[in-house]
Design goal:
The structure holds two protein chains of two kinds.
Chain A (H helix, E strand, L loop, with lengths): L9 E6 L3 H17 L5 H14 L1 E3 L2 E4 L4 H24 L1 H28 L2 E2 L2 E5 L3 H17 L5 H14 L1 E3 L2 E5 L3 H36 L4 H35 L1 E3 L2 E5 L3 H17 L5 H14 L1 E5 L10 H7 L5 H4 L6
Antiparallel strand pairs in A: 1-2, 1-10, 2-3, 3-4, 4-5, 5-6, 6-7, 7-8, 8-9, 9-10
Helix pairs in contact in A: 1-2, 1-10, 2-3, 3-4, 4-5, 5-6, 6-7, 7-8, 8-9, 9-10
Chain B lengths: L6 E7 L7 E8 L2 E6 L2 E6 L4 E2 L8 E4 L5 E4 L2 H7 L5 H10 L2 H33 L2 H18 L1 E3 L4 H15 L9 E7 L5 E4 L3 E5 H6 L3 H16 L2 H20 L5 H14 L4 H17 L4 H22 L1 H4 L6 H10 L2
Helix pairs in contact in B: 3-8, 5-7, 7-10, 7-11, 8-9, 11-13
Classes of the chains: A alpha+beta, B alpha+beta.
Chain lengths: ~350, ~350
């Protein structure tokens, strides 16, 4: 009969993209990008992302990526100049390279804010746009201040730095007029990064011991030349394996923490990514991409999108229909193209 | 059914709240009539902005007041709203056809080959000329210290042997333009019997190579070949070509630019990629001519190549496939050319 705790409706995310369709969009984008010396890549990126968004569905409604390619083209031009300068000076004028590193550092807070703003403004659900309200000053404090501090502290502050980053990004997003509220905690982040660090440390020791044992066994039973190579390859393969495992673990754990720590009004996400699933996906995707000379890339992308959607649900303590747009968004949606001039996508 | 009397279904979202209403849409002359139950909305067709079509994606129609209609009836939407610009029209045309998409594969492969194998080597030569020797030296130093960190180890040759080889090498260089810029570097490490030229005149010789050479002539033959590479500034041109490849890969991969990847590319590329056929021939020809002038026979070059080939085959027997790609297919041809020079 009547219970006090009424279960809130749970809306699963669904990914409905088809490999054939996405493959064609992807390969046409790649081909035209090459033929136009990279100019088309901005259009290609919009078309690929639009496809992925349009097939990510929540409560039978798709997401939308209404970005203008020109904004992306501008961002690409800036990135090419910066990284081209960085790479060229690295090869030819190592002393001047420090100038570029300094320039990149100074620009980092702006890049972070601009990239988040661009992505948020160009993400919409049911014709309501997301937004990002983070300030460059606060980004500078976190990305430069805590970033430098985490280096100086030989990594001790690093999990806290990642926490502050996640808080900054999550806490300053909004869906329409409803701001996100973050509920992220340092303890969780420290636990995740310490475990990942232990994995890497354990792997390094296991690799050394394993290499020695393997070399010994090989030298007893095998030919003369083989153990020399085994000493190099076996521990290297082991290290890569554990590195991928630690990476998958962090992706799953920190990804879940970040998504689950976001409150949008009375809405809440529940992400249940698992490290072993991600490990298998990354591993098999890498193998497939290498074996197919890159042609399996779109298949790999969709596989990952499908998995992430499978493991994500929205718990809605209020009706989705009640969420309102921000009046500012409504003005700019119908507004001029002028905003295009200041609109830059610099996501790296 | 003509475009004038088109009727299709869609979902209307007002853009004020996150709600959605199923609607019927009908074209009436120059207007679009949107019906939801009793309510009727009439907007001028010219004020409706449709998004660019994508294969397998519902169309979105933006209404002038901020509202939006999504429709799964892509045919009806295509009839009413053709792509607004040529880029989107061309992309959609190509993306909708399997033959076009599959034709893109050989085009991508062909253009990549043209760029990497033809255009880059052509462009690398004039660019290499613009780079001052001082900068080339800095690049070489950086490459050497990177190799030292990754694969090379300090030499275990005794100082007397080193000095003797150094002296012979200096004699060989006498009269060579810029002879003072050459630097012979002895190293050990997991690269087997090997010698290679870095930008800036560094010639690296491994202990294994020195031990493999039966006599001084054979060792000088290898060094002469490397001097040929330095003279042609082949290492620098190769670095430039590899940078071009990195730029290409970055442009293709697009979003993920990894600086560590870029930094790791240089030393490994220097080790792994064999010089192009043209570079090898040039260096060989220089070596043949100058060996004779210094009283060594080009036969020593052929002998050394045979020895290296055997050492390589032995290594291949040990590790099978791993060595397969690094076996030089042109070795036999080069041995024959050297023997023709006697």
């Amino acid at each position: 009969m009547d219970t006090l705790a009424v279960a809130a409706p749970v809306y699963p995310f669904r990914f409905t993209g088809r490999t054939g369709d996405y493959f064609r969009i992807w390969i046409v984008s790649l081909c035209l990008s090459i033929l136009t010396l990279g100019v088309y890549s901005a259009w290609g990126k919009v078309r690929k992302k639009r496809y992925l968004y349009a097939h990510t569905q929540l409560a039978d409604c798709a997401f939308e990526f209404p970005a203008r390619p020109l904004a992306i083209l501008k961002g690409r031009a800036i990135a090419v100049l910066l990284f081209g300068g960085f790479a060229a000076t690295g090869h030819f004028l190592p002393a001047v390279q420090w100038l570029f590193i300094a320039l990149l550092l100074v620009l980092t807070p702006w890049i972070v804010v601009a990239a988040n703003r661009f992505n948020a403004q160009n993400s919409a659900y049911r014709n309501i746009r997301f937004g990002f309200t983070g300030r460059i000053g606060e980004a500078a404090k976190i990305f430069l201040g805590f970033g430098v501090l985490s280096i100086l502290s030989i990594g001790l502050v690093y999990p806290y730095y990642r926490l502050r980053r996640a808080r900054f990004v999550v806490g300053h997003h909004r869906f329409g007029a409803t701001g996100f509220v973050e509920a992220l905690y340092g303890g969780d982040f420290y636990a995740a990064y310490i475990l990942a660090g232990l994995m890497m440390f354990g792997a390094a020791i296991a690799a050394i011991v394993g290499g020695i044992v393997f070399a010994f066994v090989a030298s007893v039973f095998g030919g003369a030349g083989a153990p020399g190579r085994a000493v190099v390859y076996v521990p290297a393969a082991l290290m890569y394996g554990v590195y991928l495992l630690a990476f998958s673990y962090l992706r799953a754990r920190v990804g879940n923490l970040t998504l689950n720590g976001a409150r949008i009004g009375s809405l809440q996400l529940s992400s249940t990514l698992r490290a072993r699933d991600l490990f298998w996906l990354y591993f098999s995707n890498i193998l497939a991409i290498i074996a197919s000379l890159g042609l399996a890339t779109p298949w790999a992308t969709l596989r990952m999108a499908r998995y992430r959607a499978q493991r994500l649900v929205l718990i809605a303590h209020q009706a989705l229909e009640g969420l309102a747009a921000s009046p500012a968004d409504r003005a700019s949606a119908t507004g001029s193209e002028v905003s295009d001039l200041f609109d830059v996508d610099v996501s790296l | 059914m003509s475009a004038e009397s088109l009727r299709f279904d869609g979902r209307f979202r007002d853009g004020v709240n996150a709600r959605e209403v199923p609607v019927g849409i009908e074209r009436d002359g120059e207007d679009l009539v949107i019906t939801a139950g009793e309510k009727v909305l009439r907007v001028a067709l010219a004020t409706v902005v449709a998004d660019a079509p994508l294969p397998g994606v519902a169309r979105l129609l933006a209404l002038p007041d901020g509202g939006q209609i999504e429709t799964d009836d892509r045919e009806a939407a295509a009839a009413l709203f053709p792509p607004r610009n040529r880029i989107d029209a061309a992309a959609f045309w190509l993306e909708s056809r399997w033959p076009a998409a599959l034709a893109a594969i050989p085009v991508i492969a062909g253009v990549t080959w043209l760029f990497v194998a033809q255009l880059l080597p052509l462009a690398a030569d004039p660019v290499a000329r613009m780079i001052s020797p001082r900068i080339e030296l800095a690049i070489g130093r950086q490459a050497l210290s990177a190799l030292d960190r990754i694969v090379l180890k300090p030499t275990e040759l005794d100082p007397d042997t080193q000095e003797q080889i150094e002296r012979r090498f200096r004699q060989f260089l006498e009269g060579e333009p810029g002879e003072e810029n050459y630097e012979l570097v002895f190293r050990a490490g997991a690269v087997g019997p090997n010698a290679f030229a870095l930008p800036g005149g560094f010639i690296v010789v491994t202990d294994d190579l020195v031990r493999l050479a039966e006599n001084e002539g054979e060792l000088m033959a290898v060094l002469a070949h490397e001097v040929g590479h330095v003279r042609g500034r082949h290492a620098l041109r190769l670095v430039l070509q590899n940078s071009g490849v990195v730029v290409l890969v970055t442009a293709l991969a697009g979003d993920a630019v990894s600086m560590t990847l870029l930094a790791a590319a240089l030393p490994t590329a220097l080790l792994q990629s064999h010089y192009s056929r043209q570079f090898e021939t040039q260096a060989d020809e220089y070596a043949f001519a100058h060996l004779r002038r210094h009283g060594y026979s080009p036969q020593a070059f052929a002998d050394m190549m045979r020895r290296l080939q055997r050492a390589d085959a032995q290594a291949a027997g040990d590790a099978g496939v791993v060595r397969y790609f690094s076996t030089h297919p042109l070795t036999q041809e080069r041995i024959e050319r050297a023997e023709a020079q006697r």
